[in-house]
Amino acid sequence: MRIISWNIQWGRGADGRVDLGWTIAAIGEAGGADVICLQEVAQSFPGLPGGHGEDDIAILSEAFPDHEVVFGPALDVANGGRARARFGNLILSSLPVEQVFRHLLPCPADPRVPGMQRSCVEVVLSAPFGPLRVLTTHLEYYSQRQRAAQIRALGALQDEVVGHAGAHTTGKEANPVFAPRPRPASAVVCGDFNCEPGSAEYLLMSAGAEGAEARWRDAWGVVHGAIAHAPTVGLHGAEWPDRQYCCDYVWVTEDLTPRVLDFGVATATAASDHQPIWLELRD
């Protein structure tokens, strides 16, 4: 099973040109995936640098007809009376999608810096080895306070799911909305976390929440041990950043670590200011 995560910056390449065709080609060149998790996906959003209000969701849906599309906007705003302008995270899955959850992440006031609402999209998939949750997110860039609050929220969400997974459900309620449905503790969470390895927020994410089942493992470390993270931004001379470093991650729950086969960064493409990252799990 292969998962790709990529901040596509609404299809804007390192040269400043918006071209979703380049994005789509780069995903294929990176080997494609059963599950494609994308951040900074725009739908009819005017004013984005280089863009012309493209509907990224429609374009990506057409490009990956064998994948189900799940979009979770962080921003959903008026657009001059026409189609609403949306901006957020997208999951494309060729595996059956059993459940979908869309989470708005906390955004505590931090008037010193600019900021925007952030979200996390969660799907429960029928993986070859059983039910699996895959989540993708894009955390705040400017505010460390907001970023830390968002990481705590991801930990609290995992605690909540672990609690429900261990709860006894009678199934006696006739109304189908109360029917128990698989939502396992086993999970992969990926995306642009806007923090570097070893930072306070990285350590907060690594610490997890209350129990071992809620603890996240950095998939890079599972595969590569103590080798320094390969950079995921700054490789191709985009206007940001001015140096190379890692801020994009895939995290897995402890029980999934024996299934982790490989993890890497696709360094060749300049179709975004970030690089695609990929994870392979053993069936």
Q: What would a concise description of this structure say?
A:
This protein has 283 residues and is an alpha+beta fold.
Structural write-up:
The chain is α+β, with helices and mostly antiparallel strands. The protein has a single domain (2-166, 180-281), classed as 4-Layer Sandwich (Deoxyribonuclease I, Chain A), CATH 3.60.10.10. It is 19% helix and 30% strand. It has helices at residues 20-29, 56-63, 144-165, 200-207, 219-224; strands at residues 2-7, 35-43, 68-77, 85-93, 97-104, 119-127, 130-138, 187-192, 216-218, 248-253, 260-265, 277-281. The protein has a six-stranded mixed sheet. A six-stranded mixed sheet has the order 5-6-7-8-10-9. Helix 3 runs parallel beside helix 4 (200-207). The longest helix has 22 residues, at 144-165. It is globular, with a radius of gyration of 18 Å. It starts with a strand and ends with a strand.
* Number of helices, counting only DSSP H or I runs of 4 residues or more: 5
Shape: globular
The strand order across the widest sheet is 3-4-2-1-12-11
- Any idea how many domains? 1
Total number of β-strand segments?
12
**CATH homologous superfamily grouping:** Endonuclease/exonuclease/phosphatase
Q: Which series of helices and strands comes N to C?
A: EHEHEEEEEHEHEHEEE
The parts where pLDDT drops under 50 for at least 5 residues are: none
CATH architecture: 4-Layer Sandwich
| SS content category | alpha+beta
* Residues in β-strands, percent: 25-35%
- CATH T-level fold name: Deoxyribonuclease I, Chain A
Distance between the termini: 6 Å
Helix proportion: 10-25%
Could you describe the largest sheet, including whether it forms a barrel? 6 strands, mixed
The Cα radius of gyration reads 18 Å
CATH class reads: Alpha Beta
Whole-number mean pLDDT: 94
